[in-house]
Amino acid sequence: MTEVLDQSEVDVLLAAVEQDGLDLSGGGEQGGGGGGPPTANEPYDFRQPEFLTPNQKEALKTLHLYFARDFKQALSSFLQDEVKVELREADVLAYSTMAGAFSNPFSCLNVLTAKPLSGQLIVEIHPAIVFPLIDKLLGGGKAVDVQAPERPLTTIEWRMVSSITQRIVAVLNTTWRKVADIDFRIVGTESNPVLVKIMAEHEPVVLIAFDLHMGEANGVMNVCIPFHALRPLLGRLTDLFGASPKTPAPGGDGRAKPHAPETPAVNADVQRSLLDAELDARCDIGFAMVKVNDLESLAAGDVVPIEAMAGAGAEFTFCVNGIPKFRVAPRSMRNHAAVQILRRMKKE
Question: Are 179 and 237 in contact (CB under 8 A)?
Fold first, then answer.
């Protein structure tokens, strides 16, 4: 029977190599090589082996590019301000190494389940971006890059952050539904990274890191998934989002741009995502001239007369995201002002 070394025996062997200077150059004859040149040795870290193939890693990145795009749209719409979400990396690390990347001594940690997958996940948002997000929710102006206070979030702040983390969970559900029917849910929150241990320190985890930018403020959001939970989905993940035979065009930095394969399933998911996109629709049908003195005295219940832009039978332009789309007429419905679409405007 072949004997398998455990981690402690591997550590002892590595220590002996370093102390005694054992010759691992492989200078002896190579089997079947006929005296050819010796094979070069490559370093291998037994404590942190490679668990993902390049194709699996590419598929994981491509999937989370969808997450970054959809979360950017959801968060920007919610905050009514532009928020950039960019994928930084997707890699496999030991849990102890990943936990060391968390903000210390305080952070914004959310523990999730992902049924039917086993184990728990962690979503961490760095305080450098958490506090500007909270300030924006409280009606603050342009976000600036300031030093985050070194303290845990208060109960009220956690409740405000939950409105953001719930959107993270919603987008995770939508994104991973392309691969399998997974139900992500938040089951706990914590400010101290030391108190959050979802697995043993030497166990491998998949770390997906994102850069969040809002105004001058920026920070990192980490999504930590146990590798053993992700393993059953790697085959389907690679089939859907693995690298295509054609090499994508390189970006400005010389690296290949991540791509999204154009398959019927992916196209259908993109169409479903577009159906939930929020658009700014408006129609100006009148105006009012108000003096500053009168404006300061306005209160709830006051009536301001509106001067219509035209008389009876007037038509107005209905714009979507600032682009003229329809010609409409003013109407009323259930005691509310409304417009009736008359026709679609022709493209110029």
Answer: yes
Taking the whole predicted model, whether its pTM rises above 0.70 is answered as no
Q: What residue ranges in 158-298 does DSSP mark as E strands?
A: 183-190, 204-214, 217-226, 281-282, 286-287
Distance CA 133, CA 125 (A): 11
State how far the Cα of 305 lies from the Cα of 294, in Å rounded to an integer.
13
For CATH 3.40.1550.10, list the domain ranges present in the chain: 54-246+256-275
263 and 78 in contact (C-beta within 8 Å)?
no
| CATH 2.30.330 placement within the chain | 281-344
- CA dihedral sign of residues 20, 25, 29, 35: negative
| Interval 20-62: pLDDT, tens | 555 555 444 444 444 455 566 666 555 555 578 888 899 999 9
Q: Nearest-CA neighbor of 207 among 117, 110, 105, 88?
A: 88
**H-only helix segments in 38-152:** 54-79, 95-99, 127-137
Written as one letter, the residue type at 325 is K
Tokens of 52: 């993902």
Q: Is 183 exposed, middle or buried (0-12, 13-18, 19+ CB in 10 A)?
A: middle
DSSP string, 10-39: HHHHHHHHHHHT---S--SPPTTTSS-PPP
Q: Topology of domain 281-344, per CATH? A: Surface presentation of antigens (SPOA) (2.30.330)
| Cα 62 to Cα 208: distance, rounded to the nearest angstrom | 11
251 contacts 257 by C-beta, under 8 angstroms: yes
Q: What is the pLDDT of residues 142-201, one digit of tens each?
A: 766 667 788 889 999 999 999 999 999 999 999 999 899 999 999 999 988 888 888 888
Pick the CATH number of 54-246+256-275 from 3.40.1550.10, 3.40.1360.10, 3.30.70.330, 3.40.50.1820: 3.40.1550.10
